[in-house]
């Protein structure tokens, strides 16, 4: 990492970016399976050792930003305060992943197509998604440590957030990166928040045992009713 | 499959079971990586071709029942009627997986430990879990086809059901298969149903626009309030 930073400091495009660009050029021209690490380093004009300094394997060059994004997500969650509403916080953490995809739509769409075609990359992606999900779940488990069924809630909400994020992300990728990815993701995450946003964090002090009355049309969608209750309870 | 059935019909233990038993004996004695397919077939007293008739690879012998369970799940979901509450139906489908694990606690616990130790098996398991999740999501997408954000709801609920199921299943496996797995899974799935059980399926006829009043303590957990609303609305 330090050599990459030093290189970036000189204003030259980092070698790591050159390797990713060469790899994708070859993957698109010849196919993923038909491209070797030797082909990639030859095109990038560097040695094999330079490749393996940045990427443990050929699969890793397909997902060059996930390690950084996972680290960013972990930092973001660690930096939170106990006042943060936990479900909202993990939704914001998921938005960091979206931002990484949205920063470079062309690359993201190319990678999406490649991943759909190569079963090995699909498996790799599942393991990356799993690591994001565990990072979110670990945060929620800490926040819900004092709750009954805290680990259950944490795991379920983390999975729901990841699924909502990926539903919106994949729609955007299938549309070739047209339109605003963030609007679709916001809407997807709002659905998860409407279902789980009211998971109570153990209160710092006893709550008064007063009564809440909600009046609703029978035909109203449940999420609207829940939203109304949350607002009334001051948890929204 | 037909040869296996014929063999079972004669009362002999099927060759497939013998291969699984031999494989696990060796995995436990020597470790997974140190065991070859040749070692397994030698211990089981059969030829290599018999192994590959049942299992495409060494990894597949670790999860011998998932293909059957996936097929059972798909059949179960296809056999449902339009009157089934969709979230309850996918919860029941998830219980089929639990039953497979609970049928043979010793084997399930051994496999769990093995999977924790071998990264390749962990990746294989993620891909299996993903297939279960997609089977549940495909069913929900059909059921929610006429709903706004139907695919989003389907994907999120499928992920939540799988996460809840796996949270309870893994607790049970970590406790060495002690106690009733089904009670923990029922409780975990009830949590998902309390969050999503009220996802409205497009009604066959107009609902009357009458008013529902819910009175609740301010300190009551949201899921209890939602459960109460669902019961009142007749969606529980």
TrEMBL record, chains A, B:
Q: Which SUPFAM superfamilies match?
A: Homeodomain-like
The feature table lists the DNA-binding region at: 36-55
Q: Name one Pfam family in it.
A: TetR_N
Keyword DNA-binding present in the record's keywords: the answer is yes
Extract the InterPro entries matched here: DNA-bd_HTH_TetR-type_CS, Homeodomain-like_sf, HTH-type_TetR-like_transc_reg, HTH_TetR, MftR_C
Q: Which domain of life is it from?
A: Bacteria
- Please verify whether the record's keywords include DNA-binding: yes
Q: Which UniProt keywords apply?
A: DNA-binding
Q: Which residues form the HTH tetR-type domain?
A: 13-73
The name this protein goes by in its record: TetR family transcriptional regulator
Species name for this entry? Streptomyces tibetensis
């Amino acid at each position: 990492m330090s050599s990459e930073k030093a290189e970036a400091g000189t204003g030259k495009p980092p070698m790591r970016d050159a390797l990713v660009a060469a790899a994708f050029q070859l993957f698109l021209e010849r196919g993923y399976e038909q491209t070797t690490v030797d082909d990639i380093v030859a095109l990038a004009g560097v040695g094999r050792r330079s490749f393996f300094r940045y990427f443990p394997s050929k699969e890793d060059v397909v997902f060059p930003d996930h390690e950084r994004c996972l680290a960013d997500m972990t930092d973001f969650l660690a930096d939170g305060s106990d006042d943060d509403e936990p479900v909202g916080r993990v939704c914001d953490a998921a938005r960091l992943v979206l931002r990484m995809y949205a920063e470079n739509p062309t690359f993201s769409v190319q990678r999406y197509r490649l991943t759909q075609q190569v079963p090995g990359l699909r498996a790799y992606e599942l393991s990356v998604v799993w690591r994001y999900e565990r990072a979110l779940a670990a945060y929620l488990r800490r926040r819900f440590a004092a709750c009954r069924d805290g680990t259950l809630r944490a795991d379920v909400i983390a999975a729901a957030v990841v699924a909502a994020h990926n539903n919106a992300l994949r729609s955007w990728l299938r549309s070739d990166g047209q339109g605003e990815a963030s609007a679709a993701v916001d809407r997807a995450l709002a659905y998860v928040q409407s279902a789980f946003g009211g998971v109570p964090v153990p209160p710092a002090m006893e709550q008064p045992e007063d009564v809440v009355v909600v009046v609703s049309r029978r035909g109203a969608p449940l999420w609207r009713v829940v939203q109304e209750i949350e607002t009334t309870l001051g948890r929204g």
